[in-house]
Design brief:
Six copies of one chain form a homohexamer. Chain A is α/β, with parallel strands linked by helices. Chain A has nine helices and ten strands. The longest helix of chain A has 18 residues. The radius of gyration of chain A is 17 Å and the shape is globular. Chains in contact: A-B, A-F, B-C, C-D, D-E, E-F. Chains A, B, C, D, E, F: InterPro entries: Asp/Glu/hydantoin_racemase, Hydantoin_racemase-like, Iso_Racemase_Enz_sf. Chains A, B, C, D, E, F: It holds the Pfam family Asp_Glu_race.
Chain lengths: 240, 240, 240, 240, 240, 240
């Protein structure tokens, strides 16, 4: 099967890194196709950029010319999953939801450790909208901007691990979710520092997407995610 | 003061009608400026169109060349208000939230009567994200598409009033919110049919925007709605 | 239009101060009428005094001989708004609810800073009953009794600002509501100390009452706030 | 021990009937003292009357000249219990809460069947404020006014039983609470009609008050129910 | 009347101590029968042991040869009450629920202080399942294992009182529940240290069980607690 | 990898059928080992039987002599998953939770259709305890006992499909979960009748268990699911 893994920002190196993470866990026979949106911000750390990313991801998927079996939206706390579900029949998996849903199977409560403080509310809102906040102990910010994660991985691990330890001790989290697509690859070191399971959203999403395909499940079209009605569109999609 | 009232779809006659409603309730000295987005769908009735409308509204506001004191996003259940709040210091009022917030002052519970069944979840999610769902008795669909409201106003009133009566009798609503920007103007006739107060989001939003300005309140910039960080943007905004 | 602004305690200087705040924000053509109850406590800081204030406010309004367009109950966390809504057709606005409802338009979450610790539960219960607690980050006490606010305004500002700063930093509030009618007038100085918007309930309530009147909305009489049924009353109202 | 059972309305025959119910279940050695407030409405069926009853009950208890061990507030959904708790050290038991708390021990969920539709919201709010609404399946109105319960007991049983049956079948209630002090005495006949346990608030409250006294428990004075602070009171209590 | 008080562990001295506590508060004419399960763990401090205790308690009650009027399950946070309710018509009272329900009558919020940290989630889940968590301020662990409570009572009181004080000051609890059957007997000393009412689950349960019997209430059999359907059982109950 | 799939009842034909379903979806290289408990009821339809099943499943897993990589508890709404998680390091997946978690990825809300009405509360409680009830539209009973599903499959499909259709139309479910291990195999026919995705818990659980193993995740041992402390056990496990 073929799974599109769509970055929410326009930084190609992040797309590449996400793609590698995804491929690393994919089952034999699964082809991972990483996509970068053709417009938007170099990193997504707020509502304006996130709404823009939502439509950019949708257009990137619509523009993809080959058939595919599932889509992963690889932005943590980002908007837009519901729109993709209207456009497609195949399963759409948001990595925020994939991580939380997976974490709940290996502990009674989980915390998310994300990048900047300002993205905490977006993640909280996404978890709440998805019905996954009951067992969320906290969403904590490491203070590392998305693009800094790559520039100084050692500092990133330190900052993330510190918040993870506080989540376990103070907020009573039993599992940690890495709350940023760009954190893929740090899981092992955070496990060492906290002693609890650490879930990465991208790899979790790959196994969930594969599972949904194997179970023959597609998005329900009965109401919320029915295809858009035929309509006159003005000046959209944008001319390249 | 000057208030921008931004339609979420590209149908100019709806913008005009919304603008008239807004102007009808505006205080002396308030200038209402209706805006139509330069791209998007002719009506917004689902997630894909709504996410697109979110960015179209933001770009319409960014492109407006004159100073203004507040913005009203005139789409019921639509995405995007949080993005506008990042971009602006002046108050931003979403009509879904304005109607609910106003309704709560004149009754113990309220229901929303909207256009199509598929938009019910969007409105429920918007109310929930805004912390306004505790006193929401129900969100009901009249079955009228947005563009049909104008084509057959008599049928629209009938369909809306029928659901409003059921909301009062079956769901125990004490106030009705008209859940669609295009329903502005039908309030009086729904009052006659139900005997309960009926709130229109556009006019409610005008009084709230004016109030916030008079109270000297602007959007808090301390966390969630801090301005976007300086970033490299690719291919955005779209070339006209 | 004429708006009655009813103090919940019997201290005339507080009534006067509330009336001045209200008048300061009222629109041209709005007449503010401050009222003091004819019985009750000199300040309201608990349930016994609050229930008593509830009936004292109702009797003060019933005794007012002229027509009026709206009523503001100027007690923070006080009981009784629902009773006034039964007695009247015109809008009734509680300042606790007015402040919270207004705060939600300019930030994702708000905290209330009130007088004594013992009044915190009353405010929490009022917000919860009104469906306004989802976005409430915390209710904090400054430790200043109501009558001390006037006696030592500088100490009051310090005590309130300290709790406001903690609300923003520790509880993640993005807006502060001043949780006591007697705090009207301190808003500006708390803004300076916290950097976030500060909402005063009395002035917020004036704009909301005016808005409801302009929108032609009156209290729903369909169920909860239907007029009291005709009944034999014993020894009530009390002889003056 | 001596328990005051305070009616919330001024109808002496109801006080008498409540007192008999209470005495019927009281343990040997418990003296039941029924009290009627000296002011207020002949029956309480709404917010205005209920707030008035709150203060009337408090004054009735304050005026009682002998020592006592506990107080029962015998109004269903009525305001005021928190005020009594401030004034007294001995336990105060509200019959709404007593019935719900008792019902939860004999079934997974309970419904309340009350008098008029307009009192439903008061009961819902009381249960919610007391933390007892999670297991409440519904609050239903029989349509019988309080004073009609006595005038036509057969019709009352029919109307109440009909709603009780619907609560069990449609709302999945497993226990029924009789939601009106005046319904004391109908329990047995409602059991016959529904086949589920039926809880009367007055008798439930007597056993709870006795239990709290036997356990040596008194109201916590640490915060919410601390005694009122010393204050100047104006024109209160009312001259007889 | 006769009340069975069933320990959840197999330590006879704890059964004895629980029985004494129960007998100390029982009304004249109430016979307390303490029972020890015939299989299971010497103390219950986790899910595996708790599920085992659930069936052990049920078998202990089934094996009891004489008639009885009510059953108390004397394990804090333990599983199984719902199963007993299916097997019996007479009231079944869980001490976790008895303590919480009683605490709510004497304070606005309560905290539980239990033995080990690992039992906190069990108690939280039990309170939540019983609809008693709204007014729960916190569940705190003293760090004392069940069997250590007896071995070093002075240290136990210190450890429990320390957490109780923090619950009152930091979590705003107004009542403390002693969260372990083995803590019966420590209440008085915790009252001295905290100044708030302290509820012991075993004694609270005795008064509730007696009350339910006096009120003539038995477990509702309409749905959740209907008797088990006739079935083929394999290898159960275990041969002694 | 090897996955144990444990039936909760003692009927071997159901174990066999569950095992076949599991094997049908398992990835190449996954060995499915179906287990039947050595004691308990022939079908589990209530709390008593469910608590007994909980310990029977735990003993069945403890008695299994070979290594394994994950365990699936194949009872819908049954107790016990938390106990298994204490006993094991490898992932434990409950089919109730697996189905709900999977359903949430393909629709905004889901309903469960189960066997008898009396099992509805167990399923509701399990979903609530697992943090999966926010998006649950309803749990409905088909009225078919577990052992009847096999005896008259055509009637079973009819009864289940009828409730499924009502869930979609009346409760606004967008996905259906088959709420009984014995319903495995009916999914396709319910899809035909409802037009929405249908999730079977057993197959969903297999893909989740495989995913957790592939992701290298094991149960968090930091608090709730720490291994049982060393203890003296009396008369357990039962002699065969």
């Amino acid at each position: 099967m073929r799974i599109l893994v769509v970055n929410v920002n326009t930084t190609a190196t992040i797309t590449e890194s996400i793609g590698e993470q995804a491929a690393g866990v994919a089952a034999p026979g699964t082809e991972i196709v990483p996509l970068t949106p053709s417009f938007g911000a170099e990193s997504v750390e707020g509502n304006y950029e996130s709404y823009l990313a939502a439509v950019a991801v949708m257009e990137a998927v619509r523009a993809y010319p080959e058939p595919f079996d599932a889509v992963i939206q690889a932005g943590y706390g980002e908007h837009g999953r519901e729109g993709l579900q209207e456009l497609l029949d195949v399963p759409v998996v948001d990595i925020t939801e994939a991580a939380a849903s997976t974490a709940q199977f290996v502990g009674r409560s989980y915390s998310v450790v994300t990048s900047l403080d300002r993205t905490v509310p977006l993640i909280e809102d996404r978890l709440s909208a998805a019905g996954l906040s009951d067992r969320c102990a906290s969403v904590r910010a490491s203070g590392m901007a998305v693009l800094d994660l790559d520039r100084d991985p050692a500092a990133a691990v330190d900052a993330i691990a510190e918040q993870a330890v506080r989540a376990v001790e103070d907020d009573r989290a039993e599992v940690i979710c890495l709350g940023c697509g760009g954190m893929s690859g740090l899981a092992e070191r955070v496990v060492e520092r906290t002693g609890v399971p650490v879930v990465d959203g991208v790899t979790a999403a790959v196994t969930i997407a594969e599972s949904l395909v194997r179970l023959g499940l597609t998005t329900s079209k009965v109401r919320t995610y029915a295809p858009p009605r035929p309509k006159k569109m003005t000046n959209w999609p944008p001319r390249p």
